[in-house]
Write a structure and sequence with these properties.
Ferritin, 69% helix, 247 residues
Length: 247
């Protein structure tokens, strides 16, 4: 089986067929051949704007589940705050942590096929991160419950996060991808995850939920460790593949 970093017959570039490439260039210079008109950005913008102006939102945040929390929400809104933003972002992180655990689960399920790559992390290291993601999911579930929100509701931000992560899962479950390529998808997820936790901490503080902010800070620190680990794994594997490690 050929490896992706080996020299092979890649036919996607023009240089693999210089004769045909030259003919293409000649055709562009031939005045008898019609040239496609330039794309008019204004027309594209008009269509997309029209659709956007008439489209329904991705979703909405559900109302508080109890009268007590409905009163609290109303009080916050009276003083100019919008607690729905906080609930929306909590839902987003809940969805992302659930997906995060599944991303690592996907890599673990392919471990026997991926572990042969030099520098690929140990199974226990991947399982540790997976368990952290599950723990973060459970903590967010509890936080939403404490705030009187329904953690089973998919908020608009949660819906979008799910769509965003679809491509990452496709890479991880594609039988053609190798260890380094899978780790790069995990890197993309960890970068977004870290910023998401940072935003959640700031929102918790701004709404006076200092206890939640402290819990979120612990998760943030663990996510920092995840990011550093994935970066280290990718660097080690890439240098080993290039033959330049330690040289």
């Amino acid at each position: 089986m050929q490896m992706p970093d080996e020299i092979g017959m890649n036919r996607t570039g023009n240089a693999t067929s210089p004769i045909d490439s030259r003919k293409m260039g000649e055709n562009l210079e031939d005045p008898g051949i019609p040239v496609a008109p330039p794309i008019e950005r204004s027309r594209i913008s008009a269509v997309r704007t029209a659709y956007s102006e008439n489209a329904e939102p991705v979703g909405t945040v559900s109302p508080p589940a109890t009268i007590k929390n409905a009163v609290t929400t109303g009080t916050q809104m009276v003083i100019g705050r919008n607690p729905a933003v906080f609930i929306n972002k909590l839902g987003e992180r809940l969805a992302f942590e659930r997906t995060g655990s599944r991303l690592y689960q996907a890599v673990i399920s392919r471990y026997d096929a991926l572990k042969s790559a030099s520098g690929f992390p140990e199974l226990g290291e991947l399982q540790k991160v997976h368990n952290d993601e599950v723990s973060h999911f459970e903590m967010l579930w509890e936080a939403l419950t404490e705030l009187g929100a329904d953690p089973t509701v998919q908020t608009p931000a949660a819906d979008i996060a799910g769509v965003e992560s679809t491509g990452l899962m496709q890479v991880l479950t594609d039988p053609r991808t190798n260890g380094a390529e899978c780790l790069h998808s995990l890197l993309v997820a960890e970068l977004a995850d870290l910023d998401g936790w940072n935003m959640l901490i700031e929102l918790a503080k701004s709404f006076g939920h200092d206890d939640l902010a402290r819990r979120f800070q612990q998760a943030f620190m663990e996510e920092e460790e995840h990011l550093q680990s994935v970066r280290s794994w990718i660097t080690t594997m890439t240098l080993k593949e290039s033959g330049t490690d330690g040289k």
